[in-house]
Each structure stands twice: as structure tokens, then as C-alpha cells.
Input
Amino acid sequence: MLEPLPDGSLLIVDMGFYGFEWFDSLTAAGKYILTRQKEKVRYRVTRVLSQGSHLH
Output
């Protein structure tokens, strides 16, 4: 699935495709993903690139 996508591609997927190893492989291949975050996921903000009324 990764091969035909150009570098810098952004995939928007359902949470059924949620997997950190897959996310890492996409990033390593120069592709990115956007999905909803699961309720129980823990994370730590390391750097804020942009902040507004609808994003952080």
C-alpha cells in the first residue's frame, strides 16, 4: 500500500487501522497519517507547532 503513494502523502483513515508500528513505517517512508485518537491512549506533547481555537 505504501509503494504507490508519493512522498509527503497524508492518509486519513478510520481507527480500525490504528497501530504504532504501522505509523512508524509510514513516517519512515516519508508518508503521514491522520486518524482519531483512541480514548485510552496516553501521550505527551513535546512541541507545539501551531495553536488556535480549533487546533493544537
